[in-house]
Amino acid sequence: MNNLVCPCFRKTFPTISKIILLLFCMVGWKGGFAQHPIGIFENSMDIGSPKLAGSASFDEANQTYNISGAGSNIWFNRDEFRFVYKKIKGDFILTADFAFTGDTVGAVGHRKIGWMIRESTDEGAASANSCIHIDGLVVLQWRPYKGMFMRDPEEERFYPKKSGQTIQLERIGKTITMRIAHPGEPLQFVGSCQTDALNGEVLAGIYILSHDSNTVASAKVWNVRIDKPVVHEYTSNPHAVIPPTNDIFASRLEIVDISDGTRKVIHEAAGRFEAPNWMPDSKKLLFNEGGLLYTISVEGGTPDKLITGSVNKNNNDHAISSDGKMLAISSHREGLPGGGSTVYTLPLTGGEPRLITENTPSYLHGWNPNGKELAIVAKRNGSRVYNLYKVSLKDKSETQLTFNTKGHVDGPEYSPDGKYIYYNANVSGTMQIWRMKPDGSGKEQLTFDEFHNWFPHISPDGKWVVFISFPGDIDPDAHPSYKQVMLRVMPLTSPGAPRVLAYLYGGQGTLNAPSWSPDSRQIAFVSNSEPVK
To answer: Which of 95, 238, 275, 474 has its CA 20 to 30 A from that of 407?
Structure first.
């Protein structure tokens, strides 16, 4: 009530006035207590009573937030701005794309947008906010305790102004960290801070400030994700289904447009599902969950079970033949070496699978476009690392294609024209993308960077390769779950460096299977949000 005495309890008021004023108090003064859910957020309101009111809305079809607000500043010992937020506890990662919209001509240079975490809705509350200013200034600011002056690093950073930028604000323990990325680039560190006032439950959300009491600024925010990380201990087995953690995270099935990186969540579940394939009719996706396979419309809805007969321990390695008639899968058999993963084939419409690899462990990854061979990952003859093999569907004979003795090799997939097999290999200490001819000759490395790059998938038109990039601080032979990873795409028919499509929390199960849409315009993948307790 902003320290006002609520008059609805004064006995001198008529009964009807009491009722009206009681309702007025319940909804709050200037929206202070009213709840206005916006998308994934619990509330939207102006902080600090700016002269002009702000607003916020959520476009469900495009999964985009539109936010507007005025306010004099977020600075000194009080703030004025528009805030769209939710309550959150523990560690978290906030990631989204931001861009100013509307009339920006003549805008005050310190007009800003970004993520904020806040102790309360009080105008002088302790807070930390990631700022992108319209003049290009990028900085992390924080108020350690209520009523104190805002702080920021002495060094100011200016970035070229772009049509949209990715901002990430992360809290791990007591440390709050800001990162930023221009479109298509990896996230870069901006700054970090610590304050005891922001260690518990906080309000976390997106905000906008015009830095001009007489003007309302506007912006759009998209690809909004709030993730709850786990302290990860990766496994030395690169094909482990679930990492050694007691947490099982919720899953999101997402589609990303490769032209502009816009993402759309089409299905969510409290448990773990993985590795979507795009069905040949362009209308459905196939994924695995709990050892079974399911299909779901690309528009969302209720998944339908795909019949796989007696084979019911299916993992995240499955692929569809180029003629769209057959499905190859990997599934575990009990009591066999390496977990007993075995490769099978069956009709895409479902049925009893046919066993292809008697020896284990064997993990499927790709079909030869001729429909006569599969590309698999396997350990054979006592090898300590995985190598690549091709398997004849006619007589089940295996031909070894790589002969690494130290680092793993994984993810083989044929190009649509059958001229190459693309794969990832740890040859010199980092996992990188390679390709070779189908007979194993002519090996050439395609990526050269500090990331560990896994699971190359070639677009149906043969122009692009997409892969998942893990941070450089993990075992290069592991592809663990529940890490901050990137999906990156790289051109194959013209020179070009990898471009980031999506920043997400995921890893194992995110992009194991071929997941391009038949028209080569979109990619399906799985991200993880927070543990299910």
So the answer is: 275
- Mean per-residue pLDDT, 215-244: 72
Q: Residue 248: inside a domain, yes or no?
A: no
List of long-range contacts for 189-194, beta carbons under 8 Å, 24+ apart? 190/130, 190/138, 190/139, 190/140, 190/157, 191/139, 191/140, 191/152, 191/153, 192/140, 193/128, 193/140, 193/142, 193/151
Q: List, for residues 263-290, the tens digit of each pLDDT value.
A: 999 999 999 999 999 999 999 999 999 9
Q: What is the pTM of this model?
A: 0.90
CA angle 327, 310, 380 (to 5 degrees): 65
- If asked whether residues 320 and 266 sit together in one domain, one would say yes
Q: How many domains does the chain have?
A: 3
- For tokens 């200034």, the residue is 137
Domain final residue, candidates 212, 227, 242: 227
Instruction: Report pLDDT for 338.
Output: 84
Question: What DSSP element (H or E) covers 382?
Answer: none
What is the pLDDT at residue 157? 76
Q: What is the CATH number of the domain that holds 340?
A: 2.120.10.30
Domain extent for 20: 1-34
Q: What is the pLDDT of residues 317-332, one digit of tens each?
A: 999 999 999 999 999 9
387: in domain: yes
Q: How many DSSP H helices and E strands does the chain contain?
A: 1, 39
The DSSP output letter for 516 is B
Question: What pLDDT is attached to residue 5?
Answer: 35
Among the candidates 177, 201, 227, a domain finishes at 227
Return the half-sphere exposure (C-beta side, CA atoms, 13 A cut-off) of residue 90. 9
In the 3-class helix/strand/coil scheme, how is 199-221 assigned residue by residue?
Answer: CCCEEEEEEEECCCCCCCEEEEE
φ/ψ of 437, rounded to 5, equals -75, 160
